[in-house]
Specification:
The structure holds 2 protein chains of 2 kinds.
Chain A: H1 11-14, H2 17-35, H3 39-59, H4 66-103, E1 112-119, E2 128-131, E3 144-147, E4 151-159, E5 164-168, E6 175-180, E7 185-193, E8 196-202, E9 212-214, E10 224-231, E11 237-243, E12 253-257
Antiparallel strand pairs in A: 1-2, 1-12, 2-5, 3-4, 3-12, 4-5, 6-7, 6-9, 7-8, 8-11, 9-10, 10-11
Chain B: H1 3-21, H2 24-37, H3 43-55, H4 67-86
Helix pairs in contact in B: 1-2, 1-3, 2-3, 3-4
Classes of the chains: A alpha+beta, B mainly alpha.
Chain lengths: 265, 88
């Protein structure tokens, strides 16, 4: 009896057109990424930027009613007046601080530019934020990123013409030297993602929740605040968990240092 | 416009919105479904490339920075093979 074969044999015939198309696209994509690594960033950021800007405008209240905007405006003016009073005393202390540093030849003259945060964690992976300025504002891959109040939170990792990608210091696996608590105990902070860090200290280091974590530099702004201390009597070390004093999930504006001199927080 | 083209356009718009916002966990099932329903759904690879270009692929992330591109290519190949076997 003769049976009709229901399908043809052979590896070559089993490779469909779809598979060939996919493989060709994959090779082309790899070639473009290899020879022009910034090409895709510029292209896709160009497509996405209008959407991010529109979302940013909506978040900022562009679609609110005029009455609501007037109320918001009055509320903000009142808060601004209150903040002005507090700012005056802070400015006085900062001026005094700069004068003292200038006295020792260590005054800060770092220029900074304001950038809008177009995309931020938790939706952007790897603890990165996307900013609306790029090479057009003189950013470089050594530029540091600061949150409101001059809190250092990250650094620029990749730049296109009019957008940039900043990696937060809390990105998983990133390591930094820090000083913890009132005793300025040196430790290595490791990023855990989501704006969180951990560091290990000898048990009994006398660090408590609310203690400040500083970066070993003349920058007087705190790097983080201790949120929890995990201690186990069977372990010689205790683990300190800390986070920046600002909420990275609520970042809308940041300052970027355009001098490009610093790499450490 | 036939049904497949309509599915494809809807899926493309949905995937575009999700990728722009970094919602890979929503883009993935939509792409899987669209790959199954539509012939030659290469948009899944473009979505993977776009995700990595916007949110990944800088030196510190190593190969993880290309997770979107690699997984989209693997999914596209797997779906193409699966469709060929199932629909023979």
């Amino acid at each position: 009896m003769t049976y009709l074969r229901t399908h043809s044999r052979g590896i070559g015939r089993n490779i469909s057109i779809a598979t060939v198309v996919v493989v060709v696209i994959a090779i082309l994509a790899a070639a473009v990424r290899f020879f022009a690594p910034q090409a895709f960033l510029g292209l896709f950021n160009g497509v996405a930027k209008p959407f991010w800007r529109a979302e940013f405008a909506v978040d900022a209240g562009a679609l609110s009613s005029p009455e609501q905007l007037v109320l918001d405006n009055e509320d903000l003016k009142r808060k601004l007046d209150e903040a002005d009073v507090r700012l005056a005393s802070i400015q006085y202390i900062e001026k005094e601080n700069e004068e003292l540093k200038a006295l020792f030849g260590r005054a800060s003259t770092t220029p900074k530019v304001l950038a809008a945060v177009l995309s931020r964690p938790p939706y952007s992976a790897y603890d990165i934020i996307i900013l609306d300025i790029g090479a057009d504002y003189g950013l470089s891959t050594t530029s540091k990123v600061y949150a409101a109040g001059g809190i250092p939170i990250g650094r620029i990792a990749e730049i296109s013409r009019d957008a940039s990608k900043a990696i937060l210091f809390s990105s998983p696996g990133q390591r930094y030297e820090v000083l913890i608590g009132s005793g300025n105990l040196p430790a290595t902070a490791v990023g855990r993602g989501g704006g969180q860090y951990e560091a290990q200290l000898p048990r009994g280091a006398n660090v408590a929740e609310g203690d400040f974590v500083d970066a070993p530099s003349l920058d007087s702004k705190p790097f983080g605040v201790v949120k929890a201390v995990k201690s186990d009597s069977s372990e010689p070390f205790e683990t300190v968990f800390f986070a920046p004093p600002v909420n990275i999930y609520g970042l809308r504006w940041v300052l970027v240092d355009v001098s490009g001199k610093h790499l450490n927080p | 416009m036939n049904k497949n083209t309509a599915y494809r356009i809807v899926a493309d718009i949905a995937v575009l919105i999700c990728i722009i916002h970094g919602w890979w966990f929503i883009a993935l099932p939509i792409s899987l479904l669209a790959s199954w329903l539509c012939p030659y759904y290469i948009e899944i690879i473009i979505a993977g490339l776009a995700y990595d270009a916007m949110f990944g692929s800088f030196p510190e992330t190593g190969l993880w920075g290309y997770a979107g591109t690699i997984s989209s290519i693997m999914i596209a190949l797997f779906i193409a093979g699966a469709k060929r076997v199932v629909r023979k």
